[in-house]
Amino acid sequence: MTFLSHTPEETQAFATRAASVLKGGEMLALIGNLGSGKTTFVQGLGTALGTDAHVRSPSFTLMNVYPTKHPVIRFLVHVDCYRLGAACDLEELELEEWLQRPDTVIAVEWPPEKLPSEKSATFITFESIDERTRKITIPFLE
After folding, report:
1. Does the pTM exceed 0.85?
2. CATH no. for residue 14?
3. CA atoms of 107 and 67, how far apart (whole Å)
């Protein structure tokens, strides 16, 4: 399903809707230009899953792990491969322990071209239409 967002709050509302159908164990590959709403979307996921922490871009830390209060999804792992580009190796980021966990959702901004073969990703795309409007495509929402 494709949504048009005009505010960060609308983007976060779409993330809340997406979080409502997650079961745990998913990897979300977030594709889009700088400023297209990827981190804002993950902030909405964090809120919906019940994390107490403020979700921040992991551009410099590369990976942030947020415990949640969700009954099934206990962790939100937020990864950003922007600075690493095509050389981003999710296994080298010590993400391996999180890949097999059914109680974790992994959101990867700027995912590498080759994702770990044992983990299929769901691609969510973000497109800047104009200064305020974003087109967000979330394939698992109807």
Report:
1. yes
2. 3.40.50.300
3. 14
